[in-house]
Amino acid sequence: MGKERSGGVSGGGGGREKHNKMLVGVVCNFAAELKLLLTALLILCTLATLLQFIPSRFTISASDLRFCISRIAAAAPSTPAAAAPTQKETDEVLPSGIIRRAFNPYGAAAYNFISMGSYRGGPDTFAIVGLASKPLHLYSRPTYQCQWLPFSNDTENNNVTITSSLTYKILPDWGYGRVYTVVIVNCTFPQPINLDNSGGTLLLHASTSGGGDSKFNLTDTIPALTEPPGTFNLSLFTSKPKYDYLYCGSSLYGTLSPQRVREWLAYHVRLFGERSHFVIHDAGGIHEEVLEVLKPWMELGYVTLQDIREQERFDGYYHNQFMVVNDCLHRYKFMAKWMFFFDVDEYIYVPPKSTIHSVLDSLSDYSQFTIEQMPMSSKLCHSVDAAKRHRKWGFEKLVYRDVKRGIRRDRKYAIQPRNVFATGVHMSQNLAGKTTHKTEGRIKYFHYHGTIAERREPCRHLINSTEINFEKTPYVLDTTLRDVGGSVKKFELKMIGPRLQNTRQ
């Protein structure tokens, strides 16, 4: 037993020796790592000591440390996954011996939707104005869906994501579109939107519905309108409009005559009065000299000039004028009692015993009325003005009216915009309420076709007669607008002074 006890003790000592040797081996094997760990601990302790003596404005927060660590972790290089190449379809020979041909599409011929503007039509409705691929709408059935995303989700106040219960499109350009056609998307929600004024975003989901490629139903999600918190004004829809009359102009392009623009603007500001406004759309026609004519009236608050030259990128009808006038309709819908649509070579006229106010009051039961045209010659002047024609304005000296019968002449129009959903160039076909064309004797317009685009003296022929046949067209002397020329000139001088006296043709 003693030997056993002795052996046992002796055996225990040998185990401890082996264990110590193992520890020494482990320490030796990890000496480098231990040195690095001890060095790091020493540096951290040193930094902790130094931080106590740094002024309080220099602080390192836990977020700073996390940011530092995240930057170090992000430094590790990563290899991005390569995008899988699109599989090119190839021709295939079928067991029947038929060769199935392959078709590989590339690119896109036209955009799905091009937004110009998005506007409220009321507490629960919106209108989105833009362009879309004409073939897509002509030969397919693209669809639209609207969605409201509030900035804050508050279920107690019904401030949650809402999808419109009724979304429909209007194509107001009568098929005149080219690569692009005009689309008005109307979105109606089941309840008022953003009543708590916390803000949100209107999304438009535009789907091709298989148009263009029946294999796919592509949907583009478009942030159409954002209402920042506190900007929604509910009273806008019920309050008295800012203007009695607002002019929505079509796209102006080409080399316009500054003098003709000057005459047109002075005449119509006088006609419509101080509660009127004119929205001019520049598609390339407002060069520096025309801008000088507009500036005095812009400074007085009568004119708003919008640069729309970028729309020329998109091939639509006639400088996209259908889109432009619809944008104007919805942009100013609740700012005007009446909205007029006509061109800058056309002059609205009411008889001397009437005013524009009395005429429109007599038509207040209608949502829309059209205006009869009086076509005037752009070349014929009376010989009595031969010596002084350079001092007279265009509508003073172009005094011969076309009286050819049996011709359907274009009419222009005015609307009460709150009753209209979309509009056109010569009239609206999308409105609530009545339209009348029986306005003869109450209001008409004189049309001096082409004169706005000619920078030269318009009188080409001087006539000493009250009637004449010229180029197979009968004309009669009509001095209706000539008779108000002096009053218009005095009005301009009173309003803006002599600053436009030296305007050129």
Question: Your description of this structure?
Answer:
It is a single chain. The chain is α+β, with helices and mostly antiparallel strands and 505 residues long. Helices cover 26% and strands 27% of the residues. Strands 11, 12, 13, 14, 15, 16, 19, 22 and 23 form a nine-stranded mixed sheet that branches. Strands 3-4-8-7 form a four-stranded antiparallel sheet. Strands 6-5-9-10 form a four-stranded antiparallel sheet, with no helix packed on it.
Taken as a percent bin, the fraction of beta residues is 25-35%
Q: Stretches where pLDDT falls below 50 for ≥5 residues?
A: 1-24, 55-84
Shape: globular
Radius of gyration using CA atoms only: 38 Å
DSSP summary: helix tally: 10
What features would you highlight for this structure?
26 strands; about 25% strand; four-stranded antiparallel sheet; alpha+beta; about 500 residues; disordered N terminus; globular
Topology:
Layout: H1 2-29, H2 31-51, H3 62-74, E1 92-93, E2 99-100, E3 114-120, E4 125-133, H4 134-139, E5 143-150, E6 162-163, E7 166-170, E8 180-188, E9 200-207, E10 219-227, E11 243-252, H5 258-272, E12 276-282, H6 288-299, E13 303-307, H7 321-331, E14 336-341, E15 346-349, H8 356-362, E16 368-375, E17 380-382, H9 394-397, E18 400-402, E19 412-415, E20 420-422, E21 430-431, E22 435-436, E23 444-447, E24 461-463, E25 467-470, E26 473-477, H10 485-496
Parallel strand pairs: 11-12, 11-14, 12-13, 16-22, 16-23, 17-24
Antiparallel strand pairs: 1-2, 3-4, 4-8, 5-6, 5-9, 7-8, 9-10, 14-19, 15-23, 16-19, 18-26, 20-21, 25-26
